[in-house]
Amino acid sequence: MQKKRIVVALGHRALGTTLPEQKRATEKSARAVADLVEAGVNVVITHSNAPQVGMIHTAMNEFQKLHPDYTAAPMSVCSAMSQGYIGYDIQNSLRAELLRRGIYKPVATVLTQVTVDPYDEAFYNPSKVIGRILTREEAEAEEAKGNYVTEVEGGWRRIVAAPKPKDIIELDTIQLMLDAGQVVIAAGGGGIPVLEQKEELKGASAVIEKDLISGLLAEQLHADELMILTSVEHVVTGYNTAQPSPLEKITVAEAEKYMAEGQFEPGTMLPKIEAAVDFLKKGGKRAVITSIDKAKEGYLGRTGTIIE
What is the DSSP letter of 224? Predict the structure, then answer.
């Protein structure tokens, strides 16, 4: 009998921000994922990269300012770098945790490219803030290069598009590794956004929502379940009100009703619900949203918000 397949999405709170924080956080996340592996599940891991890609983007561009002979790193390159070094920490932490439990199972990271539509409306309305605060002169220089900036407290910051993912370039590789019983870390930070230009792939100045790519990956791998691990045990309605109400087991129709009512905050919980609903409507069996500490209990159906 084929083992159950689960795509596990780790939010930024499961990864930390600084290098030491990330090392400690990935060790904790590894224990949660190892619980699932120990329970007999085949796992594919996706993860956030918001603080890390911002740090890399800032560092690379500051380096270029100090050393004009070098070029600034485009967003696609920064995304690839973040996938590599976050994957490095996750795979080593998980490998060690599995070995401590007497489980030998290869763990590997796949640098994953994701195609986006060049005519996606997001490119005309960029919304994701990245990098450090800029002076007026620096902001004008960014605009002169064709980039977008937005005014914030203390100056300006660059903003990039967040288009919807279309296809996962390395899907066949991920599938083969999963079929071989390996734990795969893929589509980190939403994947490296690329545009198809004949036979070539060109990096896009964009970021992809991690939850949306997690849902797409789960769909294309024909996973049984999508598990989104975040900072809260349950999704709630009435968020930031005097009477928040935790959601336990709900249907797709109920989730869509709550979305239509505006119950979920854009940019945080809403993409998670959207990803879960899309996955289930395209053949998925179950989606679970819960905290990293409750991953095993969520898998067993004892806690978390379960959508079926």
Answer: S
